[in-house]
Specification:
Length: 69
């Protein structure tokens, strides 16, 4: 089970790296990871910064599951 989880995380990381490489080609319409994060951070719904709250929630989840021991 542990090796399957590691394989899934490694494949997701490989896909993210592949998308970033594709986004940095000249003339690409795929946004880079920085552009995507900037877009998400600007999202607002009725003056509530939902994008920032979502990013904060994501980092909280990462910290809770991987860094708290």
């Amino acid at each position: 089970m542990r090796s399957a989880s590691i394989a899934v995380y490694a494949s997701v990381l490989a896909m993210v790296v592949g998308l970033e490489v594709a986004a940095r080609r000249p003339g690409s319409r795929v946004p880079t990871l920085g552009e995507l994060c900037g877009f998400v951070m600007r999202l607002r719904l009725r003056r509530v910064p939902v994008g920032r709250i979502a990013v904060l929630g994501f980092w909280w989840w990462v910290g809770w599951h991987f860094l708290a021991r």
